[in-house]
Give the backbone structure.
Amino acid sequence: MEATEQVRLLVAGVADPEIPALTIEDLGILRGVRLDGGRVVVEITPTYSGCPALAAIRADVERRLREHGHAEVEVRTVLSPAWTTDRITERGRRRLAAQGIAPPPPPGTVEPSAVPCPQCGSAHTELLSRFAATPCQALRRCGACLEPFPHLRAHR
């Protein structure tokens, strides 16, 4: 395996601090990794400008690479093009649902008015609050199982 790909795999496995079951690759935050001489350059894009998790992600990327012998690390924030939920991988969408978080709709589709419950699958859900644990999430409740659940809203 090529050195750049090995380094990319190291970085891709860094957990998202807000949803630790997902990696920064699952969420589409990781834009690129390259080797520049002895330095590793990593490009990341926050889910929204001002994202409070960005500093933690940067520190986790740097720590992971230094633990694996990379002394010179530069983590760059790339704001353009902006992150969208279309960048979430299929694995990321499955992991969100497994964590009880309704994922956003797949790329190229419109946000449905009825968001399926990640617990029981019912489409009989209602919006409780436009914001939940993070600004990217809404809080919904299922009319069938009565469980509340977060929903990662589409950002396009």
In short: The first helix runs from residue 3 to 12. The two ends are 35 Å apart (CA to CA).
